[in-house]
Amino acid sequence: MNISSAVIHALPDRIDAVRSHIAALPGVEIHAESADGRFVITVEDTRVTAAADVVVGLHRLDGVLSAAMVYQFCDDNGTIEEAPK
Burial level of 78, CB count in 10 A (0-12/13-18/19+)? Predict the structure, then answer.
């Protein structure tokens, strides 16, 4: 399991197109969006593509000014265990 989050900043006049491109990417979910073109997303590994490849590809989307990964979690077991109390 690999989950990453990123903040994307798009050109204000390209927000709709960038939103559509982001939403179409495998394993991506948009969690927040601002009127000035910022998006908060999460990216998960899928059977087709790795989350890291998707995050790198965000920079190449037409209308994207910047994309910054802000968090990454990886678990080789595929399960999340609670810490002992």
Answer: exposed
